[in-house]
Structures are given as C-alpha cells and as structure tokens.
C-alpha cells in the first residue's frame, strides 16, 4: 500500500462529503464517517494517555492498540476490506485476563477518577464505547465483519481494567461511588 497521502487540503469535502478508501464518496454525517471519526478520536486519546508516566508493559500494550485501531479505522474506511486480524482480539483477551487477575473484586461502581493516567484511561474507555455504538449502528445498515465491534467492546473493558491498574501504580486505589447501597452494606456488616 504505497504512500496514499499526496495532499491534505483537497477541498473535496467542502460539499459535506468524504472519500472512502474504495473511492466512493459519502455524507460526512453518515454512519461510516461517524464510526471512523470515533475510532480516530479514541486513538488520539490513547496517544494522550501515552504522554503520562506508565508501566512499561502498559505502554507497550497501548502502542500496539494504537496500531490495531489504525487497522480498524482503515477497515472502516474501505468497505469489504479486512485489516484487523483475529489475533488482535486474542491479544486484548490475553491482556484483559492478565491485568484483571491482579485486581481486587469490585465492591461497588467506581468513579472515573483517581490519577491523571487512570482518568485519561476512563476517557479512552468512554470514547471506545461510543465508537462501538457507531460501529453497531453501521452494522445494522451494512453487512460487516464482527471483528471491529468485538475489538472495541473488548478494548473498552480493557481500558476500564487499565484505569484500575493505573490508580494502583503508586499505592492508590479505586475511587468508589458513595452509594446508599454500599453504605447500608457496610452498616449491616458492623
């Protein structure tokens, strides 16, 4: 796949359309550009997370995720083309099992808070969920492989787990929601 970018400011989108990888043009408001944009935004937020001090293994994992998100975005931009491979999903499943095994069981919902790195991981998680919703909406309109939807679903789970891991890097913990139910459970146990 040679150098495809010869010019950035083409003005071809001034009419409200965008070009896909198969040389078709669609409205920028249609489902495919929404999904592509969310995946691009997610990748950018992961880039921002990578600016934080992170454990080396988490950093390497996130760099790999960025490459896979680029593949996913490319697949979305070229209807009928496969760039996201099955081993990418397996890699997420393996990472999810590895990091989740290190964490204590949740007692209640947690807030998207804590350290700056953990909070940014939560932002990434919410953007991944939005991207997943747009991919699901696109799949309801067009025949597509399940892999992009599955990848985003697993990635959002992994980002939740990584946020919990990152809150513990320097001895911190989850930031629990102060719910009435949790307070009652604590009172009942005392």
TrEMBL record:
Q: What region holds the Cobalamin adenosyltransferase-like domain?
A: 8-165
Check the record and name the InterPro entries matching this protein: CblAdoTrfase-like, CblAdoTrfase-like_sf, PduO-typ
Gene Ontology terms: biological process: cobalamin biosynthetic process
Enzyme Commission numbers on file: 2.5.1.-
EC class name: transferase
Give one GO molecular function term. Answer: ATP binding
Q: What keywords were assigned to this record?
A: ATP-binding, Cobalamin biosynthesis, Nucleotide-binding, Transferase
Keyword Repeat in the entry? The reply is no
Where is this chain compositionally biased, Polar residues type? 1-10
User: Disordered: where is this region?
Assistant: 1-37
The chemistry this enzyme catalyses reads:
2 cob(II)alamin + AH2 + 2 ATP = 2 adenosylcob(III)alamin + 2 triphosphate + A + 2 H(+)
SUBUNIT field: Homotrimer.
What family is reported? Belongs to the Cob(I)alamin adenosyltransferase family.
Q: What is this protein called?
A: Cobalamin adenosyltransferase
Its source organism is Comamonas aquatica DA1877
